[in-house]
Protein 1
Amino acid sequence: MKIKYAIILVLTVIVIGAGIGLKMFFKPHADVNKLDAEFKTEASTLMDEFQKEEATATTKYSEKVLEISGKLVAKNKLPNGTNLLVLEDEMAGISCQLDSSWSAANPSVIEALQTGNPVTVKGVCKGYLMEIKVSPAVVVTK
Amino acid sequence: MKKIFLVLIVLGASFGAFSQGKFIAKNAYISFYSSTPMEDILGESNEAVTILDSSNGEIVFQALMTTFHFKRALMEEHFNENYMESTKFPKAKFKGTIEGFKKEMLIAPVANIKITGVLNVHGVDKTITVPGTIGMEGGKLVATSKFKVTPEDYGIAIPSLVRDKIGKEMEITVKASYLPYGQ
């Protein structure tokens, strides 16, 4: 009788373990649209921080969700279809790659964006490489 | 007659712009690929920055490790935390020169080239020579390269448990479409 219980116990542990393992393996990417922004900032303030102290700003913001407001200066599409928004400065501003599933669900929001107008984006800051890289990002509409 | 002059001037100006100065691509593509028995691992970034100096054929590439995107979130986590240690070494860099560089290469149709330079990944410098192409494609200056690297050369330790599952070499693919810069 004892052996029977032991077998059941071992099997249960294996099944639970395998379940957790599979869940971790197939864990989906975080949905940036549902995440709360850890920092809310102006595009120009963020650019200042990165230009003055890149290392400090990288530690502070890298892999964090940021909500950034600034002037839209370019709206492009990359060869793979990703929508790209550039804030404040086309060469050394903030480059935001929009999340592909969010883009697919909100084409009208992207369509309505006009260069020269203010825009607010929320996305994961990846660091600084001539410009501040943010991806994936979504447009915040209020 | 006036028109012809105008056309010549415009052509001359655009040729001038193309044959001197620097070219930049802010959203260059870099991928690395490794085939494993379980599944293929493909990491892609569209956020590499590259500058090409047309006066001497020097090419600089930089990529943020955290911009590499994988099919599975877990792969991305392992890539950044276990292998590349992206917090410690956030960027990969390459600085090299096109062998036998001539300015004409930049306005000619796409042709094969060789680039020699230093690749810095995971904080380790290594001189490499890689094959590539450069030239005009669809009215744009395009450069590509495909080569293999061995993670161990860059001090990237792969745990013995998964050692056999990850290919010994990773295939790196690079594609950049350049625009004139600072003119």
Protein 2
Amino acid sequence: MTKRTMILATMLLLSAILASGLGLAQGATLNVAWPYQVPPTGHFNTFASGGITLGQYQDLHEPPLAVLMWATGEYQGMVAEEFGWDADGNYGIKMVEGNSWSDGSAMTAADLMATFNIFRLRGDAVWANMSAIEQVDDYSVKFVMDAPSSLAERIILTTNLRPASVFGDIADRAAMMSPDDEGWDALLQELTEFRPESPVSGGPYTILPDTISEANLMMELNPGGFAGDFQNFDMVRMWNGETEVVTPLVANAELHYITHGIPPTTEEDFANRGIDIVRSGMNNGPGLYVNHAVYPLNLVEVRQAIAHAIDRIQNGVVSLGDSGVAVEYMTGMSDGLSEAWLSDETLDSLNFYDYDLMKAEELLTGVGFSRNDDGVWVDDNGDPLSFELTFPQEFADWSAAAENATAQLNDFGFDISARGVQFQQHPQDIYSSNFEMAIRNWGLGDPIPGRSYLQAYNRYNGQGQMAGEGAGAGMNFDNNVDFSGGMVNVFDLSNQSSQGVDKGAQAALVTQLALSYNEVLPAIPLWERYTNNALNRSFVSVPDSSDSIFANFGGGADNWMTTLILTGVTAPADM
Amino acid sequence: MTDFQLLDAGQDALEQALSPKRKLVPAPVENFYKNYYVRVFAQAILTIWAVLTVTFFLVRQMPGNPIDVLIEQILTQEGISYQEAYDRVAASFNFDPDATLFDQYLDYIRDLLHLDLGTSITSPGTRIIDEIARFLPWTLFAVGSGFLISFVLGVILGMTMAYYRDSALDHAMSLVSSFFTGVPNYIWGLLIIIGPGISWNWFDVGAARGTYDPGLTPGLNAAFIGSAIEHALLPIITYVLATLGSWMLSMKSSTTSVLNDDYVNVAEARGLKDRRIITAYVGRNAMLPLFAQLSISIGFVLGSGVVIEEIFVYWGFGHYLFQAITVRDYTSVQGAVLILSSTFVFSNLFADLTYGLLDPRVRVTGEK
Amino acid sequence: MNSKTPSPPHPLLTLLRLPFTLLFAVFSFINRLRANRAGFIGFLGLLAYFVMTFIMPHFIAFDGEVNLDEIAGPVGSRIQLAVHTDNAELRTFEDLAGKTVGVVDQTGGPSLIAPYADSINIEKYRWTSRRAGPGIRAALIDLANKEIDAMLIFSKSVEQIRADAEDAELQALFAERIVVSNPELGPPHLLGTDTQGRDIATHIVHGGRILILTAVIGGVISTIIALVVGSLSAMIGGAFDAAMTALSNLILAVPRLILLVVLAGLIRFENTLFLGFMIGLLGWPPLMRAIRAQVLSLRERDFVEAARSLGLSTYHIMFREMLPNMISYVMINFIFAITFAMYEQIALLVLGLAPIDDYTWGVMLYFGRSRGTLYNPDGASMALSPVLAIAFFQVCLVLFARALEEIFDPRLRAAV
């Protein structure tokens, strides 16, 4: 007993010492978080899996060419000073001069060439429409394209630049080969197993390899790098870990900004501690997918009835609090994209699928369904509407959405049993049509609207080529959709709508996509996931929440925080 | 490990240590020893091989595959399209899903015979032996010290209980030990985080995580060692709480049984001092069965930390195994299982072999 | 009753006596147990668990009502009656007759007031997505302006809205004109509410049965396999013994985590109880080794030797001579096997490796943890309640098993 008391006492004492030690951080340090693997599992080859890229904070050590300002829809150049399509339909980039990498080499077009040659070696999608990359001068590069497209432009501009001094050798060898050559695969393997000894940064901060622990790593100011000369912080401390790990750190004010999706209960606790919650739309969220090979889920009326029978507001609130924002327009893309791309008349003509049990009842009785003695719906064959709804149980918000949707549908008279599946297994089940109902994501965190439809029409519908190992028929939806606007192939439409650079023509295609989706409802979007980034404004100064920068994505490319750092706006709060 | 498994494993080891020797009594002594050692060692190797083979095929039956799992993680974190995620991931993997399983197996065994554990799938080119060297020591340290503390405390308290058996102290301690045993280790972990950690704010949950403070250089310096001990405290306390009860009880019953033996009464009759009786006679004999139990439970030590390490974010071997399973890194799982099963098999072997040396009665039987 | 010849007893009589014999046996058992205080506590605890998880669910309905303004509410939170300061005398539903009372949909208010719809004018407010959103705020503003007489509102929301009201004027207005006249109007949430604003207490009542059944199934299966394989191994010996010992070693040495992940992926569970089967199928080796050792040692005892020299069959020796000597040992280990199966299944759930369908304590713990309730003192009940329920169940089992051990044979363990 005394020993345990002693252990406890020692523990308390040591914790106290530790806590006081942490308070003595010197200079201005920005405390942010992104999960990474510690060496040797983690490493500095940002092209290979396991590389310490730090997600959106990759921008801080491998700066992007440009950032899309979502509020205006215009790209703001970063490393790319001038960029755009030329008369021949090729894309040109002129880089900012005078920046250097942390190993001393100058940042030039050679880096851009190396980066894209390695993309070619990896077989990245950007090369699908691109036939060559040509260096024009020391700071300019021309991308020779088959056809101009908004998609290609976006992929090029959101690229994080890598140093030629590190990857140039492999890139040059790749440039001289073609994928059919012998040795191509060996070179690819050489790339994935390549381990740069130390990280080389071209952005404002450099990773200090000696500081990498499982708790955090330090990034030091890189004055010669892009945006390195006007930073307000001397250091960035990157905390490691997933939500559960970083939560107490935010509560203790050791960590000042996280992009992790935090549960509403935690949010409430943060709010009580005066920590700001910043929300911006993610253009995606969970939806209720059905297997169209299962009768009667293939009936439009049944899916519409389901949409009417689920209160999406409630579903969003119980799943993700204020960041679970019910989808209103039900067009298959986010409400933000709908408003940006669809005309007012189109928006008015949409079916909003309001929560309306009477309407749902009407729809079901309209196709000859009735309720049995227990109040459960039976279809016209006399079979009860009894289904299994699966969900990836590791995703806290989706599992809550599944639980709630099940309860609501059962209240309405369905007989649904919800079942959690490991997240590794769940997509495989969908790909191989091994499901009846499932919670998967609709939409995409991408400003190009047509791409939102790729989840429903391509990834989860076996007609795409990409669906991985267990590829099958997916949700068994016929991509040739016959709706009041005519007969269209929605998969082709969604691909075409991201080609070309004529926004008007793209909008026309998107309108057809939206109207057909709204009518046919291949899958039922529940709510849009907004970020709930925790931001401690007592330590970090960024513009007020009303600033247009917050229209930018709160995770992934175009992230507002990294954009504000790269533009030198983010500062210590007391400055 | 739960209480009863440890106890029974201990009994069993005793029994096993006894039985084969009896059968082999007629053989000449040197020959017998030689044969016996060779045989048990061969059996141990065979068991490890069987475990590795089973694991090799089992891990590839786990739902999902490494590529899709990583794609899924990137998709949820960054919201890019499936195509982009696929491009980024598929090419950066050193993993050929088309190679036949049997060929892969032969390669694996061949490499293993050259003492090569291979490279990780999800971090291509990283040697698994390096990863194990990175994670294993922490678990050995944390769970190992928890294990020792728990054993020593358990022996002392168990003997105390036996000496004061049927007193109020004994009853109270029985109740406490049952409580310690009954509450699963991960629940102890959660309770420690919720209670002292969050509700009462006795320690800083965030600062206690990890294996040592950032910025320290691993090595023999006071700051690092202090920090390592401090970070290991919560896992150690949890481990001690969860296993103490069973050691207490084993030691109590073992001591009780020795106390009732004739030679203790004889010793008392001879007028030996109490302390001498306790240490030389009772303590030593009562601990014999516990040693077998101890070496066997060492076999389970490494595997018992998974949930605790996840809860306290103490990145040791358990975390490594769990992470490898989560991302379906087949080769890393195999590497981890090799360590786990070898520890298990050899600690069992050790228990078998040393029991005879420790217990004079068994030795006499063997040489008769 | 009508029996005159004491032997042989009439079968009917035996049957009639059976309940009494059983009752007597149970009574004397309990009597012996009472001497062992810890064991008796464990026994009573198990009885309480039985009542709570198997009987109470028939009387207490699962409360699945979602209350959007009461997410992760603290222990004891409930609906209160907020009134205008002028109406402070309104305290009960009877007082409210003829008055206009505001409720917000998707909270606990509408269902609570529904039975009084005839006597009370109900003014419904629509919930909007914000927690302290226009629904509740609009009602409060109406109340402050005396457009309604009273309002049903959750205890947590009252404090929150007062604290959060973004403009100071509104905050002052609420503070000035609104009071809580009856803080105990609605039934309390004994254990608070979960992340969906549902009552936790009824979930605890309903969430134990399947978990306990699964553990018992796991315990039964592993005990049976261990008993059969263990005694056969010891009796038959030879190749069978070697094979079974090797198999048990193999099962012990392959990390269970991997085995269960694979099996969980391959087998599509129709229900959670299958998890019990799996745990049982993988859980027998330790007990099998112990039973094998027991049988080996019993074999050498005098009474078995005697039976053998009498030429009695192996069957007879096993079931008539040896089994009765092991039955208490097996019973005790059966209980430990249950604790082990419980330990195992919760560990799987905590790690997120077991499929989730029923809303058990394990699932509550899993969701409670993944939805962050541990980090919010108000909401911690969602994870803490199942943790305590599981922990006390395990403790009761261990106490009970140890008491049995002492009653049947105090030196059993040490005697081997």
Protein 3
Amino acid sequence: MGLKENLHNISEKVKGTKLQTTFGAIHTLFYTPKETTHSGGHIRAVDDLKRTMTMVVLPLIPLLIFGMFNAGFQYNSAVNGFSENLSFFSTGFWNFDNFWIGFLKVMPLVLVSYVVGLGIEIVFATINNHEVEEGYFVTGMLVPLIVPIDTPLWMLTVAVIFGVIIGKEIFGGTGMNILNPALTIRAFLFFAYPTWMSGDKVWVTGAVERVNEIAAGANLDAISGETILGGLAQGKQLIYSTWDMFYGFIPGSVGETSTLLILLGGLYLLYTKVASWRIMLSSVIGALVMGLIFNGVVNAGWITESSKFYSLMSTEFWHHLLIGGLAFGIVFMATDPVTGSQTNKGKWYYGFFIGFISVMIRVFNPAYPEGVMLAILLMNVFAPTIDHYVVQGNVKRRLKRLKAKTV
Amino acid sequence: MGLLSKKDLKLITDPLADNNPITIQVLGICSALAITAELKASIVMSIAVLFVMGLGNLTISLMRNIIPPKIRIIVQLIVVATLVIIVDLVLKAFAYELSKTLSVFVGLIITNCIIMGRFEAFALANGPFRSFIDGIGNALGYAVILIIVGFFRELLGSGTLLGFKVLGDPIEKTGVYAFGYENNGFMLLAPMALITVGIIIWVQRSRNTSLIEDN
């Protein structure tokens, strides 16, 4: 008797008891059950929730693996010096040494995210007596990708508990949440433990220990390990080339650095029609427009080098898409079908403001360098309002046409 | 309890649980969010409200037959304002630091919806003794929530209780901080106070399902 029959037998045996939801979830995870979902977030499409979720998790896996390599690469760069202008397939990046350092740091984050998050899902499903929904599969993968590599595991646990319960379960679970759960988790970490979520000590693993070693007299060739946004906010010179930024050989949260892989993932999501091209395109436009406005302000000479905004404002407008988490946010988080706008016209406004506000927060508030998180959460809140006005506008237009006809 | 009849006792016990001014009537939320970052401030605020509500309800009840209905709001405001100014001056004289922490929120007790609500709903229609009891009861109901919220916010946000470092010293890394624990800065921000009040409401209503409103 294989695993499949065993699982099936257990599922049948516990039917009607409190354990039904738990075993049902395990059963569904490994095999396709006969029953399909009848309601939920996928209601607008013919796909079931499991397929939609799998489609989003797939392009995240290359990012996770890249993140592991990059974590090791950044660590070795910090210790041994940064090698510039590597090509994307350089063995200076893709080697086992880098991978293993990153693997040991990133895997615990993934495990904690899934075990804690799914644990809460199962508890709530058992209490409320409904099936465990697949919604957490994407969130659980997103969470380790958007936190700094050295985030303590207990902090992540607290944040996941908060994010899943307050961000999702109290609204009624998957498909009912107002805010993107993964971003709620990150926002919680950001406001609760700011020293672990920003600054120059958290993006490269072991940075705090290295600073202590240097203070104790160790001769380490240390790059500061700041993110590009953090460096620019302080008006520092960049040591990274544009290609480094595009390939993702830069410090940052685990999976957000590689614009190249995010771009490929985005194309995949568009090809499978899981994500909305309207939101992606309008977000990019929004970011570029805001970037152009800032560049224009600098070119017009209204902002001089003495201003603290100068170096971020004078960053070339399209560089904003390469640095920080903007690209990741646009492709994987703004396009969340549950929390985004539903109407086609609304998606244009929703996306545009995400890009626009992200770049604005980046430049004007150096204390919150990662504006894309706050911008997406803000627009999540406004998405229903946008949809309301789009629908009302449509109603009004058609009423007018009706009147014109009857008169 | 020889002093209070069963009916009067209910005036005190009801607002503590099933008719709590904050969690059930959802009044007086602003001050509950603003000053609960420290337990000490919550306690002082509770005492201030207790004083104002008890005496205010008593005063209004004594005057209830001579207040012309058309200007009753003005009369009520004058009574509250007088009592609040007394509290404010006492705090400034004897606990200056604390009165700075509470800042405008002592003054804003005047606009605390619980007080005006009890004047309107109870003191204007009941005798002085019952009104006084009702004022005390509602102020205690307010105090319970403030102290619970203040307790959790100070403990998790600053790692202290009433200023004592109960969790150890975050800079010296003693106590729980030795294991890598960190204070949760989010607890000190107002949104977390709202979420804490929300969680209290959640717990209360899941224990007593008759409190859940239909909609």
